[in-house]
Structure formats: structure tokens, C-alpha cells
Amino acid sequence: MYKTEIKSLRAGKLVDTEHVNTVISNYKKERWVQNSKHIGKEDSLSVWYSVEELEGFLQKVKDHGGDGIKMYFGAYGHENAPHELYCDRQTIVLVATKQKETASGKVVDKDLYIGSEKRNTILAYNVGKICPPICQNGEDTGLGITILDKGEEGIVIV
After folding, report:
1. What's the chain's average pLDDT?
2. Who has the most CB within 10 Å: 7, 108, 110, 125?
3. Burial label, 128 (beta-carbon count in 10 A; 0-12, 13-18, 19+)
4. 3-state secondary structure (DSSP) of residue 77
């Protein structure tokens, strides 16, 4: 009898301010400028959820046998934006997952579906506060401040 050992479910690690500033700055230079130009307004740079709602979602994931979360990048369309200001902007969708072993022995993190025999739906969470446009009183955390040279369009600080 063969028994496959599923490796640790840990994938991430704690990082410091320098790491955060670097990846945010890289994002702004490599993606955000082009995204903002494409949609004709500043794209979102962050999504905020309260600890209470995240804990509630995590508990629901556990209650349904989930063991992880995938965070998908998405964008609101005009038909599904929860607010007019969110149209075309990026968001983060949290999707519950459960590790499974495939027939070939590969371990994968499968999206978790819940429901009944008649209708299953993915267990997911979305519609946080995206910034921009909904930023906390215009406050800036200082994280990821980046000066971008937009050529003939000038310089912008984001």
C-alpha cells in the first residue's frame, strides 16, 4: 500500500518594509501605469478587508473542509461593479481551496465548491474597499511611494 505524504500547507512568509516597498514599486512601474492608461483613470492599488470579515470567511472555509485561500486578481466590469467608481478597476477575489492528490500523485490546491446536489457554487469573498477610489481620508501609509517618469506626460508620484 502506497501512502502519499502531503507536504506542509505553508507557502508564504513574513516580510519586512523594504520587501513591501520593493514589490509595490515594481508593480506600479511594471503594471499600474499601463493599467491606468488603459482604463483612463487611476487603477486600484490596494483592497482592504476588516479582520472580522476575514476571520469569518476563514471560519467558513474551515467549516467546509478547506485548507487554503487563493487570491485571484480580477477587474470589475460595468455589469458587476458594486459601485460605479469601481468600474474597470482591479480587485482581489479570495477563493477557498482544498489540497487534493490527482490520479498521477501530484498534489494540487483545488478551488472549493459548496452547495447541494442541485447547485454548487465556489466559496469566495470579494467587494473590499479598493483604493483608489475609496481611500481612507486621503491618508498615505508611506508604503510603496514611487516616482514615475511618464516621458512626455510628465512625472507622477504614486
Report:
1. 86
2. 125
3. buried
4. coil
